[in-house]
Automatic annotation (TrEMBL):
Organism (species): Syntrophotalea acetylenica (Pelobacter acetylenicus)
General function of this protein: Catalyzes the transformation of pimelate into pimeloyl-CoA with concomitant hydrolysis of ATP to AMP.
Family: Belongs to the BioW family.
Gene label: bioW
GO biological process entries: biotin biosynthetic process
Annotated protein name in UniProt: 6-carboxyhexanoate--CoA ligase
One MF term in the entry's GO annotations: magnesium ion binding
């Protein structure tokens, strides 16, 4: 990536309804192509046509750039949404999240975690012990921003994902986002399932688990989904927002592709 480096991000919405978002870091020479690609993506999204698309481009401070690696990735095979959610719950419990917090976050994602019953624009923050919601605005949540894959790591990742049939934008972008979230101060685990109606997969990520995918966490056609970040009790929420939204992060190493597994359901 040529210096100086810029953060380029896109948000598309129709009224209150979040349609699409994207985040990249790039040199000046790539910005026009990325901007065009982001606008095209916003206009072709399965959630429908947005009535506003905003693009923001800002130079980042290279002296503060943080470099991190991707988590290991594995897929847990499941035959139904109920089995998928049960396995995701088991993952969260393994990561030290209380059953109350894990279940209430899953319920919120399933029912639409924003106050109007739709998906939030960003992620919710959940106390990992008592399940309390901690984000400052329950419609917006926290937006994980200013992160990307370095070019060589992107090429390696594409090749390795290709070999296991998973080289798509959902997986690539979710891995980069999860990598940043796992480096955030106070975050113990993340739960995500897509809010795109035609994408049913999701994941649990935690330092002790890596990135664990579940191909079925919601029924096809459902557009309620999103992300929950589980926080150690007492986490500095303002500092966490600052890290997730403002700290520029470049991912320069991929994790291991681990064999697929099946997990026993929770009792
Ligand atoms: C999204 O792109 O809407 C989130 C996708 C999360 C799951 C990605 C994967 O298949 O691992
Ligand atoms: Mg989406």
């Amino acid at each position: 990536m040529k210096e100086p480096l810029f953060s380029i991000r896109m948000r598309a919405a129709r009224g209150d309804r979040h349609i699409s978002g994207a985040e990249r870091l790039a040199g000046a020479d790539c910005l026009d192509g990325l901007a065009a690609g982001m606008v095209k993506r916003a206009l072709g999204h399965p959630k429908g046509l947005p009535d506003s698309i905003s693009l923001t481009i800002e130079e980042i401070d290279l002296s503060r750039l943080m470099r991190i690696g991707l988590p290991d990735i594995r897929t847990v095979g499941v035959d139904s949404v109920a089995q998928g959610r049960n396995a995701a719950l088991a993952g969260l419990l393994r990561a030290g999240i209380s059953e109350q917090a894990a279940r209430s976050a899953m319920q919120a994602l399933a029912g639409g975690a924003a106050p109007n019953g739709e998906s939030m624009r960003g992620a919710m923050l959940v106390d990992a012990l008592d399940g309390r919601r901690l984000e400052f605005d329950a419609a917006r949540g926290v937006r994980v921003s200013r992160m990307d894959l370095e070019e060589r790591a992107a090429a390696v990742l594409a090749r390795e994902l290709q070999a296991i049939g998973l080289n798509n934008t959902h997986v690539q972008e979710a891995l980069v986002l999860a990598a940043k979230v796992l480096h955030a101060p106070g975050v113990l685990a993340e739960l995500c399932w897509s809010d795109d109606p035609d994408y049913t997969a999701g994941y649990v990520a935690a330092p002790c688990l890596g990135y664990v995918r579940f191909p079925l966490l919601k029924p096809r056609g459902e557009d309620r989904g999103g992300r929950a970040f589980f926080l150690a009790p007492g986490t500095d929420v303002t500092g966490l927002y600052r890290f997730l939204e403002k700290q520029a992060v470049l991912v320069d190493r991929v994790g291991r592709m681990l064999p697929d597994e099946r997990w026993r359901a929770c009792p």
